[in-house]
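Bench notes, afternoon.
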Amino acid sequence: MEAFKNKTKGLNIIIMTIEQKLAKLDELFGSYKAEWLNEKIFQFFAAPSYFNALKSPRPCVLMGGRGTGKTTVLRGLSYEGQYALNNNDINEFDKNQYVGIYYRANTNHVHAFCGRGIDDNSWTKIFVHYFNLIFTSELLDFVVWHKERADDDEVLSPHACKLVATSLHIENDVTDFKSLHDNLELAMFDFQADVNNIADGNLPKLSMAGDPIKILCDQLKKLRQFEGKIFYLLIDEYENFLDMQQQAINGLLKHTPNSYTFKVGVREKGWRIKYTLNKQELLNDPADYVLFNIVEIFTDPETENLFEQFARQVCCLRIKELLEGEAEDYNIDSALENISKDEESERLGVRSHDYYKKVVSYEHAHNINLDISPLFKFFIGYWEDVQHESIEDQVKMLKENAPKMRERYENYKVSMLFKIKKGQGNAIQKYYAGWNTFIRLSNGDIRYLMELVYRSYYIYLQEQGDISKPIPAEIQTKAAKNVGRKNLTELEGNWENGAQLTRMVQSLGTIFGRLAKEGDNIAPELSQFEIEGEESGEISERTDKLLSAAVMNLALIRLTSNKLTGKGSVKEFMYMLHPIFAPYYNFSYRKKRKMIITEAEFLLCIDNQKEGVVNVLKNKRVEIEKDKLHPEQLTLFDFWDE
């Protein structure tokens, strides 16, 4: 079926078919990773709030989980990015006081510098030479790139070229820039061949850490076109470097010269080593670098609106292109149907529940009208059943001390929504819909946010929905469940022991889902946990490694708090399943209340899921029943089929 033209006010507007819209949606949203977008990364670039602060000459570390936008930001700082963002105008580009050189740490490459009978210290020196080769080569490529766009560029003198070549032990005759550029390319291939055969004794000649980079940057700054500029070495995926390699680069970061500085992107818990090759020399924020923790910036109550603004810009850039000619004044808030808690309770069937009916019967029997919502009535019936406080006493409190009664209701209001729908199955047990809900589910992760929006539009289009109208809450909830499931299945490939992370999420998801639905004698919205003994360093190396991997791979989010003790303030960590899993397991995505579990219970949930889950729930007075497990969970959570 071909697209057709619709003549509106004299304009020819192309109306796309459903198939064409799905293809366009894939093109606009399907590439969540910056690495997949290629040249389109700059077409859809939206600068986050901290982008300008990153442009300062100080070394900066950009920390965040996968999907938080580190790669996009670093590539936006690169010379290719700045050129594209300045409309491919070299004159506008040259107004920048910096030049960004982007490099992504390739695991296959950097992990080649270990083993094979060579000690770590020798490997570190070899790696340092490789690092020098990489960035001097990238810098020379930039010079060529700039010359292609500015014919009147000055060129490096023969003496400057010789200095760089000598610092890298390039023994071929270097007489000008071209010969330096060509011979450096050959030197890189020679070096890689030497490393691959290093066990045969092919030890290459090595350069000093950072010296060739400094020499080249100093010489480039003498050229008219680069006078007064500073070079930014942009290193992405810093977590891929081995520990000794991080130590070596840390030394360069701590002692940056005037001609260049570093901007580093790393996952949380991925910067494992915070000292240089001299272990007494630590790197500290802000003395040695400025730390930008993306998730903290985007989830802090005082600044969380910054993520909403950033996410709105990212998504609207794409959706407006999808809706071209079909919708004016697009607003993502109204495009994603948002329902109130009271409306949600109605859709979940609150009026058919016995708790609600008991209170309505009380009203009829006493010829009164409480003038409260059906969800409030449900809560009163629930409170009588669980806390054994009669409806009569609660009604009396509502009349005599309404603020106290309403405060109690507000504390439990959200948790009531999880208890309305009876049974399991594919029917919606709880709604997850609306722009603000998607913001909370993504928890500062732009990739997750894009997935939620993309999947909502995709399902809606597949069901022949009119995308010029709001996407129903039911569709959004289905999309959110799909995204949670997808990211659960991907965990196994994200870490060497990824199967353990998958089992951890399955177990904890089941626990928090059961507590939300059936945990009556517990605090409402229990969604966080603390491992007993962690704050005092009493947990095992295995547990510590699992928690670190879970945080790094966005299975868990880590929250800090300060616990006051007799010895002062002790830093303590709490954990929560990433909110993206909340719709799949039906628990609250809000950071509310925590439970304490032992390390033994935590590990049992991984090693023997059935026993671990049952034990934790029993401790919370919840008896789990095998036949109530959600069918979708059975495919992943299959230990129940024993």
